[in-house]
Amino acid sequence: MNHLVKTLLRLWIAGVSTAGLILGWVALAHSGKPAPLAGQAAANTGASTAAFSAPQLEAIPSLDELVANPSGGSQLSAPIQPSVTFNFPRLRTMGS
Amino acid sequence: MIYDEFRAMNTSFLVAAEGRRERLQVHLDFIRTFVAECEQRFSRFRQDSELNALNRSAGHWFSASSELFDVVWQAYGLHQSTGGLFDPSILAALQAAGYDRSMDEIRQAGGLLDAPTGYREPWQRPPFEQTRFDHERRAIRLPEGVRIDLGGIAKGWTAERAAAALSKFTPACAVSAGGDMVLIGLPEGQNAWQVSLEDPRDPQLTLAVLNLPPGALATSAVTKRRWVQGGEQRHHIIDPRSGLPAGPAWLSVSVFTQTAARAEGFAKALLIGGPEAAARMPGLRFVAIRPDGSLWGPPQSKEYLYVPEQIR
Fold first, then answer.
1. What span, in angstroms and rounded, lies between the C-alpha atoms of B7 and B259?
2. Which residue in the set B155, B210, B224 is minimally distant from A94, CB to CB?
């Protein structure tokens, strides 16, 4: 194989590799991997964990909005109290 | 971890075990049967229970089953260890306060009971320490006029025996009788059992998580079993010194120790005796909850306590 062909081949391999790296980086940067809840991470590890930004999600109605303007189903008579997200252990002591 | 939950002894039982349900189901079923037998034996609400037969025999020797003998003997030892603050011979006072029927029945009546009629006898009875035991014949002699309630200690004993039986078939298990529990082994992949500490002011809330090694945990509280008698607030923690519901400094006390009976006895004693009693029991690991929801306890309890960020 002559020198010119080898050079062109090397340039082509380098170009494809570079393009692949760039495309891969772009894909990872926009993969939408969910971020843990800072509070939940701290609860699980006992150490504080800084939250990092999550990708933009579509706006969802608040609980108050759902109560005021139900889309089908029965009208709720009282606001819903948000539940605690931490998964407390099922074993529980309370004095019986 | 698999779970089995059922109601018995007027409380909720929760059994947890590592392993596959199809392999452990037969043992879980056995535990339900065993607990039902214990309820029949130790309940003061069943006229034909062995406990009631013992109470009717006060002043005379009573041939007891090995189970009843063991529980009463442990209660006797705890009575000594707690300086009398743990005293099972408060049955008459419990009934006088209105707890003469099961808590389920009291709750069905809306927790409202009529005031007692007739003259209230002064609170006095022969000391429980006059109880005598014949280990060879496995017999018990309660002092004349003394009747006992085994309540929490019987639940703890039952949980302990059930857990010991189950542990032959699983590397780790826990049996909770209304929140008094025995922990054997460790959950897979974890270095401690995690137990929620309920807020005695609101059962929907959790104040902390306890990270515990194998052992036993019992909680005594003045808020769980409450009712109104003749317009006056009552609860089931009777101060044996007065014969009346205790007016404690704390709403609840949780004790962690080696056996369920000890945990139950000391939890009750600390709830009745408060900080003064705690000062006489150094080395005991406990967490007390004050009326404002704050936690109180000795330094050695801190290693077991974890308060998640969400509830700080």
1. 23
2. B224
Compute the nearest-CA separation of B152 from chain A (Å).
Answer: 8
User: Per the structure, how many domains does chain B have?
Assistant: 1
Contact criterion met (CB < 8 Å) for B16 and A91 = yes
Domain of residue B155: give its range. 2-311
Residues of B with Cβ-Cβ distance to A90 under 8 angstroms = 3, 14, 16, 196
> Over the stretch B242-257, which tens digit does the pLDDT of each residue have?
888 888 889 999 999 9
Q: pLDDT (tens digit, 9 = 90+) per residue, B62-109?
A: 999 999 999 999 999 999 999 999 999 998 888 888 777 877 788 888
**DSSP assignment, residue A72?**
S
Do B178 and A92 make contact, defined as CB atoms within 8 angstroms? no
Average pLDDT along chain B, 312 residues, taken 10 residues at a time = 95 96 96 97 94 97 98 97 94 83 81 69 81 98 95 95 97 96 95 93 90 95 82 83 85 95 95 91 90 87 77 57
CB pairs under 8 A between A and B: 88
Look at phi and psi of residue B227 and say left if phi exceeds 0, alpha if psi is from -120 to 50, else beta: beta
Q: Which DSSP symbol is given to A83?
A: P
Tokens representing residue B305 in the block: 């306590």
Question: What interface predicted TM-score (ipTM) does this complex get?
Answer: 0.87
Instruction: Name which of A85, A89, A96 is nearest B178 (Cβ-Cβ).
Output: A96
Nearest by CB: A92 against B179, B224, B310: B179
- Could you tell me how many helices (H) and strands (E) chain A has, helices first? 3, 1
CA distances from B242 to B124, B138, B247 (A): 9, 32, 11
pTM, entire model: 0.76
- Distance separating alpha carbons of residues B148 and B79, to the nearest angstrom: 12
Q: Do B179 and A43 touch (CB under 8 A)?
A: no
Q: Report phi then psi at A2, rounded to 5.
A: -80, 170
Residue A93 and residue B180: Cβ atoms within 8 Å? yes
Q: Which CATH number does the domain housing residue B178 bear?
A: 3.10.520.10
